[in-house]
Amino acid sequence: MPVLRLPHLSAAAGKQHWGNLPGATLSLAIAEAASAAKRFTLLLTADSQSAERLEQELKFFAPTLPVLHFPDWETLPYDLFSPHQDIISQRIASLYRLPELEHGVLVVPITTALHRLAPTKFLLGSSLVLDVGQKLDVEAMRTRLEASGYRYVDTVYEHGEFTVRGALIDLFPMGSKLPFRIDLFDDEIETLRTFDPDTQRSIDKVESVRLLPAREFPLQKEEVTRFKARFRERFDVDFRRSPIFQDLSSGITPAGIEYYIPLFFEETSTLFDFLPQDTQVFSLPGIEQAAENFWNDVRNRYEERRVDPARPLLPPAELFLPVEDCFARLKNWPRVVASQQDVDTGAGRERFPAQSLPDLSIEAKATQPLAALSNFLDDFPGRVLFTAESAGRREVLLELLERLKLRPKTVDSWLDFVDGKDRLAITIAPLDEGLLLEQPALALIAESPLFGQRVMQRRRREKRTDGGNNDAVIKNLTELREGAPVVHIDHGVGRYLGLATLEVENQVAEFLMLAYAEDAKLYVPVANLHLIARYTGSDDETAPLHRLGSETWQKAKRKAAEQVRDVAAELLDIYARRAAREGYAFADPKADYATSA
Q1: Distance of CA 79 to CAs 74, 482, 506, 526, 546, Å?
Q2: Residue 4 belongs to some domain of the structure
Q3: Residue 588: its pLDDT value, please?
Q4: CATH classification at residue 28
Q5: What confidence score (pLDDT) does residue 101 get?
Q6: Looking at residue 8, what is its pLDDT?
Q7: Range of the domain at 369
Q8: Residue 454 above 80 pLDDT?
Q9: Half-sphere CA count of 316, side-chain side, radius 13 A
Q10: Domain presence at residue 220
Q11: Does the global pTM surpass 0.85?
């Protein structure tokens, strides 16, 4: 049931302004407008952080609405690094779904929308569907996967990887949440199963798998030949000294190849070419300035780096859509500029009846820490929904509210709260901001405003560490001392020798210098610091020193994984026996416990 009274959205091209949408009211308005529309919605933000936040909020307010996110590469223009495979996976999956969606939302930072892309026919015509019972030639499949950019590995962990073990093929398709295991009987697909990349255990059976290309450019022989021919035509350089040219000729995908995508094709596309014709646009304030700033950065980096004869660069206009061209394309669709700030009412300008929540933060050192929240709930006549980050955080918040003699009802979603009648409710949602409406009188209070920045910082920290060993993670170079043992995730235990400044392809960069057995040295870019961890085993003096290229480290990792599974089995057995045993019931301490706490 819609909460806001939305103004009429014209199907004709033109611009409207919506204002006074503070906090999460902004995403609520966009979610309800997109849900009610009989067309697709493009949402443009000024930066990646806003895009990620709005994606989460839209999914909360409209759980049945398809919400896609087209993320940025997270590399600088003309960078020497390629985007992470998980980013490429999400981008390709979003592009593939766009033409088939008549209803939904695509959230994109304006700077990402300026990138030129591979032609629509390449990304949409390069998929492959595998079905149970289908005939499959293993060698032909392997060749096709490699030509599509998939990497052959020993064990599949990440998007774009595959391996072949006899009659089993493990692969992690782009855009998929889980990898798949193909079990062959002779030359026929007998079963298809998802599996856990951490434990490598099979999970559920499926009937079919769709494979999307692992790169945003082709690696087939014909396209590589076209790339090399156009490289020679475009650049008056000695291609024999160009790492990009030589790597691609040798079957290696060079880092930073994404900034040469136009050389693979006769023509490129833009994001707008993938969108349905009947599209409406929502944009946030500041996208024009963000686009101009981005183009200034592109020009500056082009001028700084174009002097390298071994790495000639394509002009900015061949890689990025000019700002004026981008906004000219937007004029072809109806567009709403939605702002948290107030606007003057008038033709095409709508002011919403919403307010900003007052400061409800908990004052831990005050005599009454919850005074602000208590006063707000006493004065506010409407219904209130609290949100917490997780089930555990929800229990913490419930205990906190219990001090005010408040017992909110637990609901599953925003829609359940809106359709219900309870004055107070609580649910799980990763929101950073709340909302306060006058008509109807509704308030949404996220835990972030209550606890300050701690909740948001914790979520960002957990996302960065990705569930690894937080105690061993190196967050800053100052944590390392020369001679200290460190662990590289792929190469094992070495010794940190300090920083080294090296020139790579005429570009100066800093590297961590690691020593290994037999006087071998490994140079790790500072940007890859996340691959290094402190050694937390025995004393530094007795720490091992592995040999580069040996199987010692891989065997140690496999053995450790087996031991972890053994310990987990023992713990399960202990807890099972403990659960079956009758415990001792202590008497209720009642007031004594509350006094001591």
Answers
A1: 10, 30, 13, 15, 32
A2: no
A3: 66
A4: 3.40.50.11180
A5: 87
A6: 82
A7: 357-458
A8: no
A9: 18
A10: no
A11: no
